[in-house]
């Protein structure tokens, strides 16, 4: 009985030591992965990396991690226009089946899914920045974007000018718009267009103001836009992909 008690104590102690070593190892690996991701993606701040599953050391021995969560507070994504970017906030991605090279210089996830937010102020920058003529002598310009409820974006535009050189127009109008992903771009499209002070505005001219697309290129690891929806604090985007590179 005494020998059995000693054996049980040894098992418990060794098990505890293994857990401690395993947690130290995963903490170190998370820090290394975060630093690597920051350097690869040229991030302003270090991202959060959470390697899930236990034990970590046996996953490493098998050359693959079951589940890795990555959080990036702010990311400047390319827009397709030279030198222009759009800020994406609170990007959270869940990487499944992360395999890595023998020297740990590269890591690739078999699949990834996640969410992020583009604020309305940030998305507004992609709308027409300058007033555009919608009638001779009458200009319009989008001045704000906001949550319109029921998954719609409220697009507010200012219309001003003089009709026929005599009738002044100075109105602010709003439309509800649908937001969707079209060819890897965020597209905002007005459901219908209102009349402005009884004026019959050409729809194609008005839609050059109210409707617009924004490309979002080179997201971290090569993930792609999946879907978007309007929310209170901005446009929520869902991203996903396969063979996503975390490093290397």
Word description of this protein:
Helices cover 24% and strands 49% of the residues. The protein starts with a helix and ends with a strand. Strand 6 and strand 7 form a beta hairpin. It is built from four helices and twelve strands; from the N terminus they run αβαβββαβββββαβββ. It has a six-stranded antiparallel β-sheet with strand order 1-2-3-4-12-11. A six-stranded antiparallel β-sheet has the order 5-6-7-8-9-10.
Number of helices: 4
Gyration radius, rounded: 26 Å
Strand content: over 45%
Helical residue percent band:
10-25%
Structural class given helices, strands, pairing? alpha+beta
What is the general shape? elongated
Oligomer: single chain
**How many angstroms does the end-to-end distance come to?**
55 Å
Question: What low-confidence regions span 5 or more consecutive residues with pLDDT below 50?
Answer: 6-15
Number of strands: 12
Q: What spatial order of strands do you see in the largest sheet?
A: 1-2-3-4-12-11
Task: State the order of secondary-structure elements, H for helix, E for strand.
Answer: HEHEEEHEEEEEHEEE
What's the average pLDDT? 81
Note the main sheet: 6 strands, antiparallel
Keywords:
single chain; 248 residues; alpha+beta; 6-stranded antiparallel sheet; 4 helices; 24% helix
Tell me the layout of helices and strands.
Layout: H1 2-41, E1 48-52, H2 56-62, E2 64-78, E3 85-100, E4 107-118, H3 120-124, E5 132-135, E6 138-149, E7 152-163, E8 167-182, E9 185-190, H4 203-210, E10 212-215, E11 224-230, E12 235-247
Antiparallel strand pairs: 1-2, 2-3, 3-4, 4-12, 5-6, 6-7, 7-8, 8-9, 9-10, 11-12
């Amino acid at each position: 009985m005494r020998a059995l008690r000693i054996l049980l104590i040894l098992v418990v102690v060794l098990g505890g030591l293994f857990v401690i070593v395993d947690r130290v190892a995963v903490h170190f690996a998370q820090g290394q992965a975060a630093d690597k991701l920051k350097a690869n993606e040229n991030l302003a701040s270090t991202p959060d990396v959470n390697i899930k599953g236990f034990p970590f050391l046996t996953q490493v021995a098998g050359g693959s991690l079951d589940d890795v969560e990555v959080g990036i507070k702010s990311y400047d994504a390319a827009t397709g226009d030279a030198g222009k970017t759009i800020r994406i906030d609170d990007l959270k991605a869940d990487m499944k089946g992360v395999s890595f090279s023998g020297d740990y210089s590269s890591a690739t996830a078999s699949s990834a899914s996640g969410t992020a937010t583009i604020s309305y102020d940030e998305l507004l920058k992609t709308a027409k920045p300058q007033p555009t003529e919608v009638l001779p002598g009458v200009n319009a310009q989008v001045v704000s974007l906001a949550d319109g409820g029921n998954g719609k974006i409220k697009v507010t535009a200012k219309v001003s000018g003089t009709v026929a050189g005599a009738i002044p127009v100075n109105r602010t109008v709003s439309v509800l718009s649908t937001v969707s992903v079209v060819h890897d771009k965020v597209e905002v499209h007005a459901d219908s267009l209102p009349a402005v002070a009884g004026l019959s505005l050409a729809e194609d001219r008005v839609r050059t103001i109210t409707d617009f697309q924004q490309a979002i290129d080179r997201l971290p690891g090569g993930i792609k836009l999946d879907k978007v929806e309007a929310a209170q604090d901005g446009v929520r985007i869902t991203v996903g992909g396969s063979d996503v590179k975390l490093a290397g």
